Every structure is written in C-alpha cells, then in structure tokens.
Amino acid sequence: MLGLAALAAAGVTLLGSLVAPSSAAAAPALPSFASIETLFSFGDSYSTVGYKPQDGLLPLPGVGGTTSGGYNWVQFLAFMQNASYFDFAQSAATVNNSIIHINRGETPPSFDIQLATFEEYFAGAEPEIPWTSDKSLFTVFFGINDIGFTVLQDSHNASEIVPKIVQSYEASVSQLYDRGARKFLLILMPPTYRTPYIKSFGAETVAKFNTTIDLYVSTLTTAVADLSTRYPDASFVTYDTAPMFNAILDDAAAYGFSISSTSCWAYWNKHDPELDLPSCEAPLAEYAWADDYHPTWGVHKLVAEDIAKTLTGSVPSIVAAPPDGRTISRRAAQPARKAIRRRRPGHGSARGSGASAHDEAAHALMRERMRRSWAGLAMAGED
Ligand SMILES: *[C@@H]1O[C@H](CO)[C@@H](O)[C@H](O)[C@H]1NC(C)=O
Ligand SMILES: *[C@@H]1O[C@H](CO)[C@@H](O)[C@H](O)[C@H]1NC(C)=O
Ligand SMILES: *[C@@H]1O[C@H](CO)[C@@H](O)[C@H](O)[C@H]1NC(C)=O
Ligand SMILES: *[C@@H]1O[C@H](CO)[C@@H](O)[C@H](O)[C@H]1NC(C)=O
To answer: Which Gene3D superfamilies match (predicted)?
Structure first.
C-alpha cells in the first residue's frame, strides 16, 4: 500500500525535533485545536490533493493528486490531528478569477468557486457528511498564483490589484463564517522568489516578487485583524510559511535535504515519495523542490509540524491513513533518522559534463512549459 509505505518513509526521513521556526509567539493557540475532527481546505497547487467531491465525497487515498511527490501539508496535518480532510484546493487557483485574469484554456476554480463547491456538498440542509463548527478547521492558503500572475503578467498593477484580492479573500472567509465555520487557519505566502522557477527570471523579477508578497501579506494581515474584530466568536490564526521555508533554504542539510537550489526534471509530476532516479543527483526525498516551483513532501511535512506546533504547542506523531482519509488510532514510533546519502558521482552530477544533454533539454522544456502557462501562451501540440 503506497499510502502506508509513504507515511513510514515520512517518519523515517525527517524528525519533528528538527522543526525550529514557528510563529507560535505571534499567534494565539487555537482554542481546543486538539478536538478538531475535520479539515476543510481551500487553496492552490501547494495544497491540492486532487479532490473533487463531484467524483466522490471521500478523499482519494494516497499522494496521486499532490505536487510534492508525496503527501502535502494538509494531509500531514490531518494525519497528525487524526482528522478527516476535504481539500478543495486546485492547482493554479487564485482568490478570484474575475480579478486575476488567467489567459489559458481551462480556468482553475478560484476561492469563491471552491467555496461554492463546499456549499453544494457540505453546507446543504442535510449534508451527507456531517461536521460541526467547533470540531472543524477551515484552512485558506492563497496568494502564490495571485502574486505570480500579478508580477509575471504585465497588465497587472500590484498596488491596485492586491487590495482587491484581499477584499475578495475577506468576503469568501465571511461567507464561510456564514456557513458555520468558526475556526480558521489562514496561511501566509512562502518566499516563492526563492523557487528555481522565479529565480530563473533574474534579480529584477525576484525583487518584484519580494515586495509584492510583502504588500499582499501586510494587506492580508490587516484584513484578518478586521475579521477577528467582526466575528469575535470565531478564531482566526495566521501561519506564516516564510520563516520555515527560509530556514530550510538557508540551511537545507540541517533539515535533511542535500539539494535546495535546483530541482530534477525527472521528478516533475511524479507521485512516489521514495523515488530515486539515476538521472537525478539524489533521491527525491533529498530535494527541497519537487519541480521548479513546488516543494517536496519533506518540506510539506516540516511545515505541517510547525503549523501543529503553532496551534497546539506540540508536534503530534503522525498516524496512518486508511483510504477514507480518516486516520487509524495508532501512534507510530519514530524510527531513527535516515542518514543522508551523499550525492552520487555516477548519477546526476554527470549532467553538467554534457553526458545528459537529453536531461537538460527535458528540464528546459519543463521550464518553458511553466513559463508559457504563466504568460497565458499555449505550446504547440498542447491544449
Ligand atoms: C499603479 O496604481 C497606482 C494606484 O492607482 C498608481 O499610483 C500607479 O501609477 C500605478 N502604476 C503603474 C505602473 O501604472
Ligand atoms: C470577485 O471579483 C469581482 C470583480 O472585482 C467582484 O465583483 C466579486 O464580488 C468578487 N467575488 C467575491 C467573492 O468577492
Ligand atoms: C526580500 O526582502 C527582504 C525585506 O523584506 C530582504 O531582507 C531580503 O533580502 C529580500 N530577498 C531578496 C532575495 O530580494
Ligand atoms: C481517530 O479517529 C477515529 C474516528 O473518529 C477514532 O475512533 C479514534 O479513536 C481516533 N484516534 C485517536 C488516537 O484519537
């Protein structure tokens, strides 16, 4: 069973004791977070598990729908909390498609549309899967594509568009409140300008990302304060992913990664946490980036542990997950930390010597595909 094997692998490779950054001091602990039984998640490719309730109400088992090569932070958090998770996040999603125009064939469902799906399946008169306000956590993680499109598409003016994005975000959170949501975990943006993809655009774009993210985060933080005032019977906790991402990228080895500035094209869009391909310099688990824009499952796990620490003050053990997404009441013993394997000369390092021109070409193709998808351009032979 891939799911259980993957979890075992997750426990083996990275230990919770390594988790250092946490915004715990800044955020109040969420009241009775320990009693959370259900997670409802909204977001983009950093959060998606490929779940679509229209295809079946129960979440798909395993890691097939994530962008991390393994589980993602939503799943790890659910496993740690022994909670069911219903994750409406979809790749490339923004807060509001009417604000950020994405010029490509299929427009991904933005926050308001994900919310409508939640309402349709979980907020009717008699939802098939019951949930209660006090035992449900609503997580919202947007901004990566909003800021990405704002910066990379010329037509967007950040100082005009960011307040609109945040206003729409606030409206959707208010609507969740109207539907009974009372416990909110609002995730702030990671430094996406440190991804191999954004770095490939050069220093000017990196700097623009940096300042635009700052603007988005500060505007959103003000909005969250406003929501807290408006809804005193609800809990709003923000978790800033930047400290953890920065800590990992500043000192990857301390967190169990041997490669943190590049990705290996051969691991792109793969769903096997233990994948170890000879054309890459190291196993997937030793990379911080699963592709040029998305972190690996190991990074997700560290973020999830840090979130749990922020919310509850401690990092619960991961328990196993059967196919229905609910976790088994079994606390896994933490196995000894796996030794980091060194880069293997016979493998990916040959790449730079010109021995694998094919690999370079494939990586260039992946990067060009991403670049064109951001710019709203189709590639020949692609829909
Ligand atoms: C962006 O919008 C702001 C506020 O409306 C305006 O002052 C600024 O000139 C605009 N920038 C550009 C490059 O159009
Ligand atoms: C999305 O943006 C459009 C255009 O600005 C706006 O009319 C609409 O109310 C927004 N949706 C939400 C949920 O705020
Ligand atoms: C991003 O901005 C922060 C200040 O907000 C600065 O400390 C940091 O060096 C910047 N990073 C890059 C890569 O520009
Ligand atoms: C996990 O959740 C299931 C279903 O709600 C419950 O039966 C079980 O006792 C829980 N396990 C733990 C360790 O809380």
So the answer is: SGNH hydrolase
Residue 379 resides in a domain:
no
Chain Cα centroid distance, residue 368: 23
Give the ligand with the smallest distance to the CA of 161. Answer: 1
Q: What is the pLDDT of residues 211-256, one digit of tens each?
A: 999 999 999 999 999 999 999 999 999 999 999 999 999 999 999 9
Binding site membership of 329 for ligand 4 (Cβ less than 6 Å): yes
Cα–Cα dist 46/44, whole Å: 5
Residue whose CB lies within 8 A of the most ligand 2 atoms, among 94, 99, 101, 107, for a mutation test? 99
Residue nearest to atom 10 of ligand 1 (CA): 157
Tokens of 211: 């300042």
- Which of 160-164, 273-277, 346-350 is least confident? 346-350
| Amino acid symbol at 289 | W
Q: Is residue 383 part of a domain?
A: no
114: CATH: 3.40.50.1110
pTM for this predicted structure: 0.84
Q: Report the pocket of ligand 2 as residue ranges, CB < 6 Å.
A: 96, 98-99, 112, 164, 168, 171-172
CA pair distance 67, 294, nearest whole angstrom: 6
- Ligand 1 binding pocket includes 329 (Cβ within 6 Å): no
- For residue range 193-223, list pLDDT tens digits in order: 999 999 999 999 999 999 999 999 999 999 9
Q: With a cut of 70, say whether residue 128 has pLDDT above it.
A: yes
- Specify if 381 maps to a domain: no
Distance 308 CA to ligand 3 centre (A): 27
- Whole-angstrom CA distances from 344 to 254, 292, 338, 358 are 20, 21, 17, 19
Residue 64 binned pLDDT confidence (cut-offs 50, 70, 90):
confident
Total tally of structural domains belonging to the chain: 1
